[in-house]
Every structure is written in structure tokens, then in C-alpha cells.
Fold this sequence. Notes:
Structural class: alpha/beta
CATH topology of the largest domain: Aldehyde Dehydrogenase, Chain A, domain 1
Mean pLDDT: 96
GO molecular function, one term: oxidoreductase activity
Largest sheet: 7 strands, mixed
Protein name: Aldehyde dehydrogenase family protein
Keywords: Oxidoreductase
CATH class of the largest domain: Alpha Beta
CATH superfamily of the largest domain: Aldehyde Dehydrogenase, Chain A, domain 1
CATH architecture of the largest domain: 3-Layer(aba) Sandwich
Shape: globular
Distance between the termini: 71 Å
Domain Aldehyde dehydrogenase: 6-456
Radius of gyration: 23 Å
InterPro entries: Ald_DH/histidinol_DH (IPR016161), Ald_DH_C (IPR016163), Ald_DH_N (IPR016162), Aldehyde_DH_dom (IPR015590)
Amino acid sequence: MTTTTDTDIEVHDPATGELVGRVRPADAGDVDEAVGRARVARDGWARTPAADRAGLVRDAAGALRGVAEELARLNETETGRPYDDGLGGVLAAAGTMEQYAELGPVHRGRSLLGSWSATDLMVPEPRGVAAVITPWNDPVAVAAGLIGAALVTGNTVVHKPSERCPHLGRRFAELVASFLPEGVLEIVDGAGPTGAALSGHADVDLVAHVGSIAAGRAIRQAAAGTGAHVLLENGGNDPLVVDADVDPRWAAEQAALGSYANGGQVCVSVERIYCAAAIAEPFLDALAEEAARWVYRPSAAGEKALGPLVDRRHREHVHGHVAAAVADGATVHAGGVVPDGDGAFYPATVLSGLTPAMTITREETFGPVAPVRVVEDFAQGLAEAIDDPHGLAATVLTGSMNNAQQAWRELPVGSVKINGVFGGAPGGAAQPRGTSGTGFGYGPELLDEMTTTKVVHWSPLP
């Protein structure tokens, strides 16, 4: 749980409610000083050979592996993410930084064919000072990707981690900064006001943000005044469409994984499920059985760990969606009740009887809730999945090549997953659409976002 006093941000363990620590938020003056230091360091870092920049990032990634267990424990303490999941996130972060250390030196421009005696070049250059504002749900992996890509392409960085895990964010950033020249990576603590001061700063050239739609919208407006390039991954309302020709138990396992992993607090969590009527009954029965396997830590053999939500304020949001759906006629098959005791736990929940107008169908819940709408067939499920302003990701489970082809062609999202709610090749890109964001957030394409192109036309003297 995160609370703000007159001067400090207090962070509490979401499993116990115990105080983890207090952090003083950076004010506008602190932000100005951090951006100023990054500005001073900008030219020297940009002129550092790309291979040397990459070598320092690679060294930092190796050090990150050495403290992975420590960071995973701190992640669990501040956000409730189960230790094994958090450890995987830290190791993925190290791998991402190593990947960008390899890709950075070979990120290149191109030449253009013009007249015989002239040369035209398109040269990538760093944008300058990058503001990197990261979330609490996968804090190390997200920060590592954005910061790693920014650094290897010659940008300096001011990083603001989420106020819900400030100790983890600072530990990570200070570790990476210890391998870099002074001013190349700065860190500021704080909540919304700090983020606003940073993203709207006149000397920031790029803002990369992963977080809420409201914050992303404010960043777009601020950047319109400063001219900063904006890279956003914001909220999603990711659908899962279940065809009538798949095994309902397997489909239920996929739905549970997509809905309950990290307590449903994943950017690409399954948020709404459309199941063909022909298999709806066995699917719902199997999904309720799967929900019973996701239990509060620690879990026994055959069970899966379901940590607490990040804080009680977020739990109120999640339960509010569930309670409103039930009041409007939804049926609870599992969970749906706020448990007694300390912490911010919420049970794995299964609902049916959803309608398109319900809040839980239209908005991101971001909790361990699997809301199921029974539809006549795949075509109806796909049509309703498409009817949404978000555009992050979607999943379809089908044995039909025709249905799979139609789905990935028509779904207006950045990523479509066929017959698997998670996965994807290392280095894969993602480009959200609609209210879910703009720009590439992963993959080699992220290096393009972190750079701007200068065209040079070079002709000889007459």
C-alpha cells in the first residue's frame, strides 16, 4: 500500500500492511537539477563510441544478474509480486539490456542513390535527454528495456520509477548508473506531480512512459508544448476469444494463466473472455476449478502462487468492477469476495453473464478476474472483441486457420496471440494502438524510437 503524507511517500508491504519505508518526492527544483545534469552529460555521452557505450550497459547487465535475488525479494515486499515471478522479471531485464548492448553498435542509417558525384546519408542520432517513467507491475524489466535502449543509442536518461516501488526503482537505477559517467543516468522519486514536472520539462527531448491511460494523455498534452518525442504503453482491455473447436479444459487453463498471472496485473493480462456457447458450460466449470488452484503464497504442489494486489486502493478498484457486474446480473463461479485479514489479497475470480455495457467489459480491471461472456459463435466473439477503443493485445484460441487469419487481420491491436496467452520470441516488438499508446516499446524497433534521423546531402565543390 502506498500513501502520501505532507512530505513523504510511505510504502507498505501489500501482504502484511507493514511499513517498508518512506521516500521524499522530488519537487520541480529537484527535477530541474536532474535534467540539467543529464543535459550537461548529453554531448559527451553521444560522442562516446557506440561499442564503448554498449560495453558499459553489458557490464551493468552482468551486475544486475548478481543481485537478482535481492531485487526479486524487494519487488515482492513493495508490490506483492511472487518471488519466482519477480526473479524471472529481473533475469529478463538483464537479458534485455544485453540484447540492446549487442544491437546498439550495429544500429545504423542508410545511403540514398542520387547523382554520381553526390552522397546522401540518413544518419541516426540520439534525441538527447530521455525521461523514462516506469510502472510497478514489472518494474525492473520495463525500466531495463527503455533505459538500456536509450543508453546504447547515446541518450542520457532521467528515470522516475513508480511511487509504489521506489526503493526497488532506485536500487536498480543506481546500480546501472554506477557503471556510467556522471549525469548519464539520473533518478528522481515521486508520484504524479514529479512525473508531470519531468515529462513537461522544456529540456527533455523524449518521454517514454508505461502506465495509465490518464497519465499517458497528460504526457501527450505536455509534449505538444515542448516538442518532445513521446513513446507510450498505456492501459489495455485485452480480449480472449475461445472458439467452439478447442478443448474446453485447455482453454480454461489458458484463460486462467492470462487472467491470474501476477494477480492479473500484467499489461497484456486477459481482461475479457468471449466463449462460444457450444463449449461454454464445460469451459466455465474448468475455469472455476483452475481458479481454485491459484492461492495466496506460499502455494503447495499443484497450486499456483497468487500474491496480493499492489495495495488496498487498487483492490477497491478491482472489487468495484466485480461488484458492479454482479449488481447488473453477472454470476460468480469463483472468488468475488474481499477476504478478511491484513494485506491487499483478492481471490481468483470467475464471472459469467457479462454484457457489452458493463464496466468490467469496457474498462481495464487489472486484477485476478476472468469475466466470461458467452457468445453464439467465434464470429460474434471476434466482432465484440474488436469493438473497443483500446489497442494493446488480444488472444484467440482456435483450430481454424480461417478464423485465426481473420482474427489477426481484423483485431485493431498491436499484438495478436494465437493459441497461447503469453509467449513470443525474445526481441519481439510491440506497438500499441488507440488509447493504449503509441510507438514501439520493445524489440530492435525501440532503437529507432530512441533516435532521430538527420539527412546529409554532400556534394563536391564545382
